[in-house]
Amino acid sequence: MIGFLKERKNKRSVNSFFATNERYQLLEILGEGSYGVAYLLADQHTNEQVVLKRLKGKHLHAKGLAKFEQEIHFLMQLQQLPVPRVLSEGIIEKTPYYVMSYANGY
Length: 106
Hints:
Blueprint: H1 2-20, E1 24-32, E2 36-43, E3 48-55, H2 62-77, E4 86-92, E5 95-101
Antiparallel strand pairs: 1-2, 2-3, 3-5, 4-5
């Protein structure tokens, strides 16, 4: 139940972020896994599509945060391979996220 409430709060925070953020326009939710949610965005500065991935509320604890940070680190190390590039990372009201390049079909 606590995980459900945290996730509901995270969804509201992310929706507020998209409503007030001038750089990114939400196009659609790409998918949801056990650890995170991925959103397809239009980057208003570059006119490119990008993906924002955020951690789910039930994983906002030390172990979950560490795994999410590890995922970002691994993706950044693979920048030379044909995988999405990490463009930025940040926090939306205590929820970590990162923005990566989008390639249809990955």
